[in-house]
Amino acid sequence: QVQLVESGGGLVQPGGSLRLSCAASPSGSSINVLGWYRQTPGNQREKVGSVSMGGHTTYHDSVKGRFTISRDNVQNIVSLEMNSLRPEDTAVYYCHAIVTSGFVYEYWGQGTQVTVSS
Question: Which of 101-114 are b and which e, b meaning 16 or more Cβ less than 10 Å from the residue's Cβ?
């Protein structure tokens, strides 16, 4: 069982920056993929990006060049550095983990609100 706890959301002006972090516990968990999703009211959750244990990253086209995902495999922390934020980035951001151990297990954080507004 993996628990994910996000932090770092809040209100920021357009063009500003925010950093989200997600701590996975227990810290010794072998998590294959860590990533971030976001969701706005009435819409499906969409994948923002992910990072594998080996450091391979993927990003949604809308955030390429603006967002950066990084991962600390020792402490099992994944971060999302968000720059040049736009109003359309406003959403609840969820941390996501995939553990492959015979079966594929998925875990979600509780979500953190990011609001981009002047």
Answer: eeeeeebebebbeb
Specify the 3-state DSSP secondary structure of 97.
strand
Q: How far apart are CA 83 and CA 73, in angstroms?
A: 23
Which carries the bigger pLDDT value, residue 75 or residue 61? 61
CA separation for the pair 38, 84 (Å, rounded): 17
pLDDT of residue 30: 83
Torsion of the alpha carbons at 109, 113, 114 and 115, rounded to the nearest 10: 170
What is the average pLDDT value for the chain, to the nearest integer? 94
